[in-house]
Amino acid sequence: MSHPDDVPGTILLWDASHHGNDLGHRGEVVLQPQPSADPEDPLNWSRKRKLLAISMTYLYVLGVGICTTVHYSVLTQIAEAQALTVSQLNLGTGLMFLFLGWGNLFWQPLATTYGRRGVYLASIILCIPPVLWTPFSHGPSQWYAHRIILGFIAAPIESLPELSVPDLFFAHERGSYMAFYALMLFGSNFIAPFLAGFILDGAGWHWVMYFAAIWVLFCSTILFFFMEETIYFRNTTETDAVAVDEKTGMAETTQEEVSFPPPRTYVQKLKPVLLLPGRPTRRQALMKVWRTFKILYWFPNITWAGLLYGANLAWYMVINGTMSSILGGEPYNFAPAMVGTAYLSPLVASSFASLWSGWFADKIALRLARRNKGIREPEHRLWALPLSALMSTGGLIMWGVGASHDLHFMGLIFGIGFTTFGVVCGGAIALAYTVDCFKEIAGESLIAVILIRNTLGFAFGYAINPWIDSLGLQNCFISVSMISLFVTGTFLCMIVWGKRLRKFSAGRYWSYVAEERTLG
């Protein structure tokens, strides 16, 4: 059992001499958390079964991500057809993002109590009605209404996949799969407007929404038959599975012999709810909602991760809020299909960002753990952020300042790509850092991060047009780029003080973990 003085997130990840002989290893890498002896423990699943499970999570992200962002490159046409201003459309989109965050206060406790599968299925199926409502709505009030409803229903896309990744993969693998989730999340947001431009030219903007509904229905069908439940309640934590001696890097562990239920049949796996022993009580589920707000005060590492992720989402909102007006206006005069084509740049950039913030950041963390007597600190992966800061800052300047001086459109395309690289890196690393620091309360921690992220995204999305009107395009984006550089640059503060802040939160963290064990 972990001692209250154990620092959350500090784990033995590299054991070249196998001092911890009882520990599960993969080569010289220590498996964290230690898998149980249960063959149905998702950590013990075969590689093929794990990949199918995570692929279904990614398909959910693609399905919901496309239906919530498919309208970006046809905003002008929607405004003309429904007598709306672009500012009203952007406000509706901002409200959707706000509820994409706050809706998790409802969905996440359900997912951590009754299982992931049911929440995924309910969320994606319920996305269809508000999407179909969109072509038939009139005026700003109805636009705001279906955007808010869609945001609330689609909210699990923002935080539930981040639980599915540690359900299935060990600590040294998480970064790569978390980064690929970020690629799917942001990539779907770029694929949708790209496709929408061509659908608009061929069939009109109404069919853009019909396409989104058909796509979601297709994804829902696949998920129903192939998505497997990954929730599992284990009796060990990453820190107490291995008691780490920071001077020697040696570890000790104990194993308990217990019996496990038989594997579920395929028909049993189709059930949307899984009532496992050890699940949170209803009282605990409600406590977790309130705990989310306390985490923002008592866990400064989580608050910082939320600010990092929120700032990066803000630049994404800024780009989306100005893409149609800049490329569709003078001197570029892009047709809707060409505006959609411009989204290929961030799609390519997000692929490179996924590789950098995932595979490369994992390698950095593993190498630094080896140098640190095998002990990994969550801050090790933050060393992948300097490139993210430079790319995002440079991209925002190229986009805003370049557009104000009629820079060749290819310069703007590269600017979008550079900004996207920083956005995806910042988001993926913030999520992985959150789980690495306080894995046993990841459900609540991730909600806290998403609340900060989406509230900031809403604020910047709401403010960008008045900001540009007040300062002008050039000065606005110079300000934005400097804010971006400053916020991401604060990772240096976490490198220096991150572990002390985790130690500050340790007592409360272990008390939360103890509550889970005694009340579950």
UniProtKB/TrEMBL annotation:
The chain crosses the membrane at residues 51-74, 86-107, 119-136, 148-165, 177-199, 205-226, 295-318, 338-361, 382-401, 407-433, 445-465, 477-498. Gene3D superfamilies: MFS general substrate transporter like domains. Keywords: Glycoprotein, Membrane, Transmembrane, Transmembrane helix. GO terms for molecular function: transmembrane transporter activity. One of its GO terms (cellular component) is plasma membrane. It is found in: Membrane. Pfam families: MFS_1 (PF07690). It is a multi-pass membrane protein. Residues 51-501 form the Major facilitator superfamily (MFS) profile domain. PANTHER family: MAJOR FACILITATOR SUPERFAMILY, TRANSPORTER, PUTATIVE (AFU_ORTHOLOGUE AFUA_8G04702)-RELATED. This is Major facilitator superfamily (MFS) profile domain-containing protein. It comes from Fusarium kuroshium. The lineage of its organism: Eukaryota, Fungi, Dikarya, Ascomycota, Pezizomycotina.
